[in-house]
């Protein structure tokens, strides 16, 4: 009996003791915020670590964090790039902490050593050596689930500004008070969440996403298909520091894991000895600082795996003084997961696990002021359930599941998130619903869509582009146009665009119509047909111009705002009528072909009369078959928009475009006809050299057979005070034509390499630009004059010495403007030549990037 009672009391006591111990280990959720000590601005993506443990957290976009704590007191270690690491002791009962950290002013240890003596350099070189092997973008095939969250907002709006402005006061209900201030507000503009499955295969090529869930709140101006959304897409792409070309607003930023980084960064290996629990590999922690904060370089730190020398995590901060237009703040963090490659159990392949970034934009960067009102974008990307090398049956089966994402509520999306929304994001959603109910906001939003896309949508039809509505040239005078196209909602495969215009000077109506069908294939396949009765700029060579300016909207020189800067109005216009049919086919990721069959009649005009041995020729017929190829990098990222393709990145490798054309001509009423062939080759490339960028375009070709002078190669001219990257600025149009030619166009953007090191001037964030344009051209004038008489304004230049233009300029004035000078170099020619309208000119350039 006593034994029974003893056991009973013993078990009761043991249970009570365990319960007390468990109670004493009750988990407390510790919350707090990390701010800058000087201006109390929140610091996102800060590392929070409980000292002596492996537990930690990262602050959200607003600098807030929460971390589970089982005992007190504890010591929090708070660290962020560019700031001094701070240790804070937290006692029981402390909550809603505000941790203030101080920006690091001093540079890294001033120890004079050779690069070979710095252990951080040794590790860095091994990381660079294994970049291709470790780059996630070089994985041959995979599929992965992707969750993305994006928030656009206007922030740091002072309450005094709001109260003093009637327009801003009307937005009061749509404003959110910033957590770091009682006097500043934000206006959220767009919030989106999406869940999708990314599928990729290199050979055979498949690349697509299966959208699953989506929710959006806010203004449509930042959605797809306009200038603002295209600009935003440069920041929403997956951040991957293994890629050599790291561009921000088209400015090359020196990647800290590149050999050129040694010339721009100071590196230090911290003495910590840490091991990764998952792989057992030692981790190296390297900090880096820019040698010159005016250069396009980062401030940050990274953790590297030993043995495989792959990045575990990297976080960077762009100094606000850096010479990158519009960006006054940029922070990013990327964490990589290690996956075992199923082709070999010994091989680890890094893949992005999480990436977060926050960027602040402002029109002016003349001062470092964190409290200025600015636009902000913050993005969270998370990847999970990654499978390497799935079977081709699975890849093809997934493609059939591509459909529109299901739009869902916040409650449904909550199950897909791995964290909760921040207070800022929750308040933003509520505020944006109020914003969309304001009448003038709806109007402004629509106006911004028109401004950004160039089109005004009316149901199934888009009116535009608006830049084409008014034109001005010497032959037609002021021309008024009505341009239209089908919208994206008209049909998923069919598209059409057209234009009708009237020339006030010549009193003629003209127009054009193009239609096409895009097939539902993974590799691009499009058939097009079109016709026109329209004005034709003789010598303009727009088809070859389009080879070089494929990404940009190819605008003609007779647009009204271009004509304002014209040295003189070009009158070398005639009328062309006829049509074409073409087929565009992508064979592999790196090879695109375009074959076109065309038949056009070109009329004689007052300014470009056609004569044969003195006899007037009213019109001549031209028939051609043309094959154009585009050979490019297989790493290229591209997207389709409407009827044309947009190429986002070519990994810095050359793009080669050979063109073969065969054709015939017939001079109506004269009985003169003949056959000809043309070969043309264009090569262009953008080379990143540290923070500088060298762009070149090389062209060459030949024409076989005698042809009418409008079919000769007219060397592109601008005749304007607007700087032209791919055209000669000082030539008259149609002054130099050729049947054999070669040209080299060079542009070197130094991106502040010199100005960044000059006191006082460096604060203006100016950039230097040099350019050189060289042309070798030859023509057998006698042979071609037997077809059509050669006009007096065409010069047969057969000099063995080139035509040369040199230029230099200053860019980034007010961040959108450049001013330069262009000289014609008299190589083998007298100073005054009849085919150049001037030997020196001041030119201007407008651009949203460098």
Care to describe what's here?
The chain has 850 residues and is mostly beta strands. Helices cover 13% and strands 44% of the residues. The protein has an 18-stranded antiparallel β-sheet that branches. The termini are far apart.
Topology (elements, then pairings):
Elements: H1 2-24, E1 28-36, E2 47-50, E3 56-58, E4 64-69, E5 74-79, E6 86-90, E7 97-101, H2 119-129, H3 131-134, E8 141-158, H4 159-163, H5 166-169, E9 176-177, E10 184-201, E11 206-218, H6 227-236, E12 247-248, E13 251-252, E14 265-269, E15 274-275, E16 282-290, E17 299-305, E18 311-318, E19 327-340, E20 348-361, E21 374-388, H7 392-399, E22 406-407, H8 410-414, H9 423-435, H10 439-453, E23 456-458, E24 461-463, E25 470-473, E26 477-486, E27 494-503, E28 509-518, E29 525-537, H11 542-548, H12 560-563, E30 573-588, E31 591-603, E32 611-612, E33 615-616, E34 619-631, E35 637-641, E36 644-649, E37 655-667, E38 672-689, E39 692-704, E40 713-714, E41 737-738, E42 740-749, E43 767-778, H13 781-785, E44 803-813, E45 817-825, E46 840-846
Parallel strand pairs: 1-7, 11-22
Antiparallel strand pairs: 1-4, 2-3, 2-5, 5-6, 8-10, 8-21, 9-10, 10-11, 12-13, 14-16, 15-16, 16-17, 17-18, 18-19, 19-20, 20-21, 23-24, 24-26, 25-26, 26-27, 27-28, 28-29, 29-30, 30-31, 31-34, 32-33, 34-37, 35-36, 37-38, 38-39, 39-42, 40-41, 42-43, 43-44, 44-45, 45-46
């Amino acid at each position: 009996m006593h034994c029974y009672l003893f056991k009973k009391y013993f078990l009761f006591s043991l249970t009570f003791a365990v319960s007390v111990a468990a109670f004493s280990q009750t988990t407390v959720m510790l919350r707090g915020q990390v701010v800058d000590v000087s201006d109390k601005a929140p610091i996102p993506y800060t590392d929070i670590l409980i000292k002596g443990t492996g537990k930690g957290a990262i602050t959200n976009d607003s600098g807030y964090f929460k971390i589970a704590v089982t005992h007190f007191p504890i010591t929090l270690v708070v660290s962020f790039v560019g700031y001094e690491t701070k240790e804070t002791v937290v006692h029981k009962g402390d909550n809603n902490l505000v941790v203030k950290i101080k920006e690091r002013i001093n540079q890294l240890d001033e120890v004079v050593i050779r690069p070979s003596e710095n252990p951080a350099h040794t590790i860095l070189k091994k990381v660079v050596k294994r970049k291709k092997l470790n780059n996630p973008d070089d994985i041959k095939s995979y599929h992965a689930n992707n969750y993305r969250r994006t928030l656009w907002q206007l922030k740091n709006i002072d309450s005094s500004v709001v109260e003093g402005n009637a327009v801003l006061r009307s937005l009061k209900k749509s404003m959110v008070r910033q957590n770091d201030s009682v006097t500043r507000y934000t206006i959220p503009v767009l919030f989106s969440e999406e869940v999708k499955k990314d599928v990729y295969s290199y050979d055979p090529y498949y690349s697509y996403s299966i959208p699953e869930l989506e929710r959006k709140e806010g203004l449509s101006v930042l959605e797809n298909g306009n200038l603002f959304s295209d600009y935003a897409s440069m920041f929403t792409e997956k951040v991957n520091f293994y890629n050599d070309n790291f561009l921000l607003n088209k400015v090359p930023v020196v990647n800290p894991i590149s050999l050129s980084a040694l010339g721009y960064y100071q590196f230090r290996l911290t003495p910590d000895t840490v091991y990764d629990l998952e792989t057992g590999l030692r981790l190296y922690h390297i900090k880096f600082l820019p040698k010159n904060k005016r250069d396009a370089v980062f401030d940050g730190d990274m953790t590297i795996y030993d043995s495989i020398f792959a990045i575990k995590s990297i976080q960077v901060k762009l100094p606000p003084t850096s010479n990158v237009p519009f960006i006054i703040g940029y922070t990013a963090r990327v964490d990589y997961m290690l996956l075992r490659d199923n082709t070999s159990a010994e091989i680890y392949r890094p893949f992005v696990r999480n990436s977060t970034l926050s960027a602040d934009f402002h029109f002016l960067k003349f001062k470092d002021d964190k409290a200025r009102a600015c636009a902000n974008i913050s993005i969270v990307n998370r990847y999970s359930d990654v499978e390497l090398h799935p079977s081709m049956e699975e890849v093809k089966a997934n493609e059939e599941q591509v459909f529109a994402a299901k739009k869902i509520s916040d409650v449904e999306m909550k199950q897909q998130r791995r964290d909760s929304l921040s207070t800022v994001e929750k308040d933003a959603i509520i505020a944006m619903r109020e914003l969309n109910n304001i009448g003038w906001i709806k109007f402004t939003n629509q106006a911004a869509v028109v401004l950004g896309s160039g089109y005004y949508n009316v149901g199934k039809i888009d009116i535009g582009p608006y830049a084409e509505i008014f034109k001005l040239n010497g032959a037609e005078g002021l021309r008024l146009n009505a341009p239209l196209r089908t919208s994206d909602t008209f049909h998923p495969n069919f598209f059409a665009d057209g234009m009708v215009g009237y020339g006030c000077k010549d009193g003629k109506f003209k127009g054009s119509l193009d239609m096409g069908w895009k097939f539902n294939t993974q590799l691009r396949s499009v058939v097009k047909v079109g016709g026109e009765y329209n004005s034709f700029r003789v010598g303009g060579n727009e088809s070859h111009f389009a080879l070089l300016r494929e990404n940009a909207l190819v605008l003609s020189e007779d647009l009204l705002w271009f004509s304002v800067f014209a040295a003189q109005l070009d009158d070398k216009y005639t009328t062309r009528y006829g049509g074409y049919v073409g087929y565009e086919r992508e064979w592999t990721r790196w090879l695109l072909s375009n074959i076109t069959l065309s038949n056009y009649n070109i009329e004689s005009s007052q300014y470009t009369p056609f004569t044969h041995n003195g006899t007037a020729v009213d019109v001549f017929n031209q028939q051609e078959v043309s094959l154009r190829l585009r050979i490019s990098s297989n790493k290229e990222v591209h997207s389709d928009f409407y009827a044309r393709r947009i190429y986002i990145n070519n990994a810095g490798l050359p793009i080669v475009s050979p063109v073969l054309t065969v054709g015939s001509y017939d001079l109506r009423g004269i009985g003169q006809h003949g056959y000809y062939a043309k070969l043309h080759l264009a090569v262009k490339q953008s080379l990143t050299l540290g923070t500088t960028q060298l762009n070149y375009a090389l062209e060459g070709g030949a024409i076989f057979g005698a042809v009418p002078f409008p079919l000769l190669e007219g060397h592109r001219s601008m005749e304007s005070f607007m700087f032209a990257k791919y055209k000669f600025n000082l030539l008259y149009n149609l002054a130099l034509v050729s049947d054999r030619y070669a040209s080299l166009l060079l542009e070197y953007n130094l991106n502040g390499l010199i100005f960044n090191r000059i006191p006082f001037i460096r604060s203006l964030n100016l950039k230097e630009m040099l350019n050189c344009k060289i042309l070798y051209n030859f023509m057998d004038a006698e042979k071609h004059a037997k077809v059509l008489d050669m006009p007096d304004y065409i010069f047969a230049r057969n000099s063995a010495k080139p035509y040369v233009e040199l230029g230099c300029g200053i860019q980034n004035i007010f961040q959108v403007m450049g001013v330069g000078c262009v000289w014609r170099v008299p190589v083998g020619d007298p100073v005054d030549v009849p085919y150049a309208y001037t030997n020196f000119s001041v030119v201007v350039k407008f651009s949203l990037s460098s």
